[in-house]
Amino acid sequence: MGWRVMWRRMLRSPAAVFLVSSFFLLGSVALLFAWLTFSPFPKPLPVSSKSSSSAAAMASSSSSSSSSSSLGCRPDGEGSWAIGVFFGDSPFSLEPIELWNEWRNESAAWPAANPVVTCASVSEAGFPSNFVADPFLFIKGDTFYLFFETKNSVTLQGDIGVAVSKDNGATWEQLGIVLDEEWHLSYPYIFSYQDQIYMMPEGSKKGDLRLYRALEFPLKWKLAKVILKRPLIDSFIIYYDGYHWLFGSDFSFFGAKKNGELEIWYSTSPLGPWKPHKQNPVHNIDKTLGARNAGRPFIYNGSLYRIGQDCGGTYGRSIRLFRIQVLTTDRYEEIEVPLGLERPRKGRNAWNGARTHHLDAQQLKSGKWVAVMDGDRVPSGDSVKRLFIGYAAFGAAIILVILTGVLLSAIKCILPLSRCLPILGKRSDVFQAEPRVFLYLKLGWFFNHVNKLSSPLHGRINTKTCRGLLVLSIIFVTLVALTCIGTHYVYGGNGSEEGYMVKGHYSQFTMLTMTYDARLWNLKMFVKHYSRCSSVKEIVVVWNRGQPPKENDFDSAVPIRIRVEKRNSLNNRFNIDPLIKTRAVFELDDDIMMTCDDLERGFKVWRENPDRIVGFYPRLADGSPLEYHDENYARRKGGYNMILTGAAFIDHKLAFERYWSEGAKVGREMVDKQFNCEDVLLNFLYVNASSLDRTVEYVKPSWAIDTSKFSGVAISKNTKAHYHVRSECIRRFSEIYGNLAANKWGFSSRRDGWDL
C-alpha cells in the first residue's frame, strides 16, 4: 500500500504535472512539424516479385522469401550505393545513359535513366539488399553481364550478385547471387584467361586473396586457388608488357595508411606464383591522393591507366585517374590526368550526388566505350550521424525541460530515503535485500546532492515580471527548435527526394512552363527548385511576352531552354517542339510550388498510364447546362472528369499533335478569343480522340503553394469571372467534341492512396 500511496502522490505532484504537460506540448509540436514537413505518402519498400523465373530458380540458394525480400533498402551506415551506365567515344568523354536517349517500351523508360541497378531492383528479384556497389562488366558478344557487391539486408554481409542486359545496358535482369561465403565479399574483378572466366573478389576478412573459376557462367563458380595469403583490398590483375600485374592494398601491417597504401605483384600467370614489386608499397600516402584502387584499369592509345579513390572527407568521395608512366619489376611511376566526368548538381536528389568510388570502362566492337559506375546520394555514416544528432537534440530538450522546472520551482528534486528503502519483514530478508538497499542508498545520495546543487536555482524565473516572461519565451523557442531538429533527423529520412522505379527502371521527363517578363521572379524560384528534382532532364520556358532572359540568368542544375514565341497566346503551351528529347512533358505553371517527391509520384503514375493526362488539380464539369467546378465540388460529388494542365504529365507528341490537328482549330480560336480554356480544350480532345475508357488520372500533392499571390501577378484573380468563362468554353466544346461529363472517375481508386 505504501508504494501505491507514494505513486499517487508523485503523479499529483507539481513536478509530475509539469513534466507530463511539457512532454505533451513538445510531442504535439513534433507531430505538427512532421505533418507540415514530412510527405504523407511514404516511399514503399521493395517487395519480392515472384514472376521472375530466374529469381525463383535462385531462391533456394539465397535464403530469400517474399517476407525477407521486403527487408531490402534499409538505412545503412555504409550508404545507399547504386549503379549507373555511361557511354562515350572515349573513356574521357563518358556521359550517363539518359543523355544517349535510349527508349525502352517494356520498362516504360523514355528515355532509360541512371541508376540502372539499385537495392530495390535486387530486392524485388528476391535477394534483399541494402545497397549495390563495385560493379564490373563482362561482355560476351552483344550481352552485358554485370557483377557487383550487394549487401545482404539480413546477414549485413557483402555477397556477389549478377545481372544481365541484352540491350546495351539500358535494362537489366537480376539473375541471382553467385558467391555467398561466410565472410564479406566485394569488388568482384572478373576477367578471362586461356578460354576460362575467373573472378577475384575482395575477401580481406578471410585474410587471403582468392581466385574463382566459372563452371557454369554466370551463376556457378568454384574456388580455383588462393593466390596470395595477404588480406589485399580492391585488387585487380592486368596483362601488360609481358607480365600479369596484380595491384592491391594491404592496410593490416604497421605503418600502413588506411586508403592510402598500394602494392604491386607480378607473375607470368594469373594463377601465380606472385612476386612482390621492389618498391612495395609503391604508395603509402594520404587517403585523398588516390592510392586505393577504384575499378578496372584500361589501355587507351597505348597508355595504361589506373583508377584510384579519393577518400577525403568521406569514404569513396570521388575517383581520380592516373596514367602509368613506368611499370617494371623494380620501378613504378604514374601521373594524374583529368577523367572529364561532370559532377552532378542535384545534391542528394541525384543518385550519385554525394560520392562515387568505382569505374569499369571497356571498349565495344563499335569503337565506342561503355562504363559502369557506382554512386551514392549520402556520405558514409550518414544514417548514424542523423540518429546521433536527432537523439542529442531530444536529450538536450529533456534536460532543458527539467532545468526549466527547477527554475520555476515545479521540480524540487527531493527523493526521501525513507521512500526508497525496502521494508524488511524478517531478519533473513536483510541478506536478500542488501543489494537493493545499497542501490537505494546510492540513488538517495545522488538525488540529495542534485537537490543541494539545484536549490540555488529554485524560483529564479518569476513569471510575473517581463524579464521572467522573456526568459521563459526564449526557453520555449529553444525547446521547439530542439524538438523539430530531433524529429527531422530521427524520422525525416536522409533528405533526398528520389525517383520511383517502374518495372525496375528509372526514366526522365521535360518540364515546360509558360510565362512573361512580369513573372521573372516566379520563374527564377521555379527553375532553382525544380531543376534539382531527380527525374527532371530539361526545363523549357515558353516566353510569351517581353524581353526574354538569358539562360545563364538562372540557377539551374539541368539545361534550360528559352523558347521565344512570336505572339502572346495560351496555345503556345502546346506548340509542337521537336527539340524535346523525352516522351513525358510535365506542364507546370510557374507560380505553383510543390515538392520534388510529388513530381516523382506523378511521373510514376504517368509511366504506368502514358496515354492519360496525369496531374494534381482535378476539376468536374457537371450539371445541365454543364458548369465548371473546382476540386472541393468534385470531392462532394465523388469524382472528376478533367485534369488541369497547369500541373500535369502528358505524352507531348500525342497531346501536341491532337491539339494542333485540324479538328481542334475552332477550339484554339476560342482559346485565343477568351485568353483561357487551353487546358479544358486538351481534356476534350483526349476524350474525343481516345479509344480508352479513361483519359485522366489524379495524384494528390502533399502540398502546393501559389507563389503568384506573393508577387501580385496572378492571371486569374477574379475567380467567379474565370469560372464563368470556363463554363462557356465547356458548353461550346461539348457541342463540337462531345460531352465529357460521362468520363467521370472517383477518388480513392489507387491502392497506394495517392489519389485520396
UniProtKB/TrEMBL annotation:
The membrane topology term of the UniProt record is: Multi-pass membrane protein
Record carries keyword Ubl conjugation: no
Show the stretches that span the lipid bilayer. 388-411, 469-491
Of the GO CC terms on this record, one is: membrane
Subcellular location field = Membrane
Q: Pathway, per Swiss-Prot/TrEMBL?
A: Lipid metabolism; Sphingolipid metabolism
Give start and end of each Glycosyl transferase domain.
509-744
**The family this protein is said to belong to:** Belongs to the glycosyltransferase 64 family.
Q: Which PANTHER family match?
A: ACETYLGLUCOSAMINYLTRANSFERASE, GLYCOSYLTRANSFERASE FAMILY PROTEIN
**Protein name, per record:** Glucosamine inositolphosphorylceramide transferase 1
